[in-house]
Specification:
The complex is a heterodimer of chains A (322) and B (151). Chain A is an alpha+beta fold. In chain A, 34% of the residues lie in helices and 29% in strands. Chain A has a 5-stranded mixed sheet with strand order 8-11-6-4-15. In chain A, strands 9-10-7-13-14 form a 5-stranded antiparallel sheet, with no helix packed on it. The chains are: A alpha+beta (322), B alpha+beta (151).
């Protein structure tokens, strides 16, 4: 017998059928099937199968009834409770069944789509929240400072230092940028020029204004290391940025803060006594943005154009191999 | 089909239908996601495009198309047959390895747009004897991009 569940908010479409529990048990026992097997196929619990057979749930969803009939290898009508209906009514019911089946399929598919969309929406919310969290973190700090240094330098040679400042807020910031050099290093030209240079502490200072809004502000300078620096010595840089409105609060300069004294050109990152294509592209990528910074481009290009270089310990110079 | 086979088939059939639908949905979501990401990746790897406009005889010409945002520096490599050298070029050759037959140009501070490189050789060449390569650092990933090109 086919019934429609008027209380179900999904439908007009969820069909309920009245099953004959005795018949279900009879078919199951005839085929030698366990309640566990039938439960697995229909995707319900063994308790549910038991209740169906004992007529404790006389009506079930048509979807489940179809699966049950398939598991028992019988027709659907074989497990339904027989009702005395005219052929015409049966015919009409048949049509209703077809439309109800379609509604059930749509409902199941719709639930799956909804589930997937729900997961996607949750992932999007998590992503948005993490971006918001990061931006909040950034705005708490107000400003970020990053130093770029080469990895190594030979005694008596010069190398570039770049400090990049970024601020999220779209406004002007007045600040003091301080960078402290190692003792055996001498600062050369700065771009922009240093406001102050303390020879005793090795501190360089800039008093400047920068504009935020994710626009990068670059402070750069060249450094010369003394000729008597020891091979293997590690040179340490320290620096910080202080905003005018936040006196006493310093933002430490992050990024590179050490380089090692070694007999290799600073652009020769893999220390193979050559400057290859990738190394020269890296140099210009990193330091080329400061067009007026003379970081020894000619020497680098000459080494790249030749077959390599060797370090002369006596003269403290690179000799290009042609 | 035996009874056992039919029962196994029935058990797996229902599970397979649901599982395959869920996998289809996830695949669709992944494709939508990648559709947003992949164009950006492919865009980064095609920032510099080189084409031969003249590739045989004593004169070689190459157009270099640079997209935005441009890489900081570009290296153009021209491979020539043994014994062939460049007598004149614009811009000037920066490096030439006669053993390899490899000429290199270092283009610094490039801007978006098109430029033409022209070179005059000491002897004529055929199209199938030459090739080129462009190298630059991807501004997004920092990886070196190498893109060969042929006539």
């Amino acid at each position: 017998m086919l019934m429609t569940n008027h209380n179900d908010p999904v439908s007009s479409g969820v069909a309920i059928v009245k099953i004959d529990g005795d018949k279900i048990r009879e078919f199951r026992e005839q085929k030698g099937l366990t309640q566990l097997y039938v439960a697995t196929v229909v995707e319900v619990t063994t308790d549910t199968i038991s209740r169906w057979e004992n007529r404790r749930y006389p009506t079930i969803k048509k979807e489940n009834a179809l699966k049950l009939a398939e598991a028992l290898e019988v027709e659907l009508t074989d497990i339904l409770e027989k009702d005395k209906l005219s052929l015409d009514e049966d015919g009409k019911e048949e049509l209703r069944t077809i439309s109800h089946d379609t509604e059930i399929n749509k409902t199941t598919y719709g639930k799956q789509i909804g589930y997937a969309l729900g997961v996607l929406m949750l992932a999007t919310i998590v992503l948005i929240l993490s971006f918001w969290w990061k931006s909040t973190e950034f705005s708490e700090v107000d400003i970020k400072a990053h130093r770029t240094l080469p990895k190594h330098i030979a005694p008596g040679q010069t190398f570039p230092v770049i400090i990049t400042l970024t601020a999220l807020e779209k406004r002007q910031f007045s600040l003091i940028l301080k960078d402290i050099l190692p003792t055996n290093c001498t600062p050369l030209n700065g771009i922009p020029s240093f406001t102050a240079m303390d020879k005793e502490t090795g501190a360089l200072k800039w008093i400047s204004k920068i504009t935020g809004g994710n626009k990068k502000s670059i402070f750069s300078y060249m450094v010369k290391i003394s000729t008597d620096a020891n091979k293997g010595e590690i040179l340490q840089f320290n620096g910080a940025v202080t905003l005018r409105k936040k006196r006493g609060t310093e933002t430490i300069i992050l990024g590179d803060n050490t380089l090692t004294v070694r007999n290799f050109h600073w652009a020769d990152t893999n220390t193979d006594n050559k400057i290859d294509d990738e190394e020269i592209l890296n140099v210009y990528d990193t330091f080329g943005a400061v067009t007026s910074l003379d970081f020894g481009k000619e020497k680098i290009e000459d080494i790249w154009s030749g077959k390599g270089y060797r370090w002369n310990e006596k003269s403290h110079k690179y000799e290009i191999i042609q | 089909m035996t009874k056992f086979g039919r029962r196994t088939f029935i058990m797996t059939k229902h599970k397979n239908n649901q599982t395959s639908r869920i996998w289809l949905i996830y695949l669709f979501c992944l494709l939508v996601f990648l559709g947003g990401i992949l164009p950006n990746i492919s865009k980064a790897s095609g920032l510099v495009d080189c084409k031969y406009i003249k590739s045989q005889g004593k004169e070689i010409k190459i157009t270099v198309d640079i997209a935005s945002p441009p890489p900081a520096t570009v290296i153009i490599i021209q491979n020539l047959p043994t014994g062939v050298s460049i007598s004149q070029s614009s811009p000037p050759v920066k490096k030439f390895n006669s053993k390899k037959g490899e000429a290199k140009w270092l283009l610094k501070g490039v801007k978006p747009g098109t430029m033409i490189m022209a070179m005059r050789l000491n002897q004529p060449v055929k199209s199938n004897e030459i090739s080129g390569e462009v190298r630059y650092m991807d501004p997004t990933t920092g990886a070196m991009i190498k893109m060969p090109f042929r006539p």
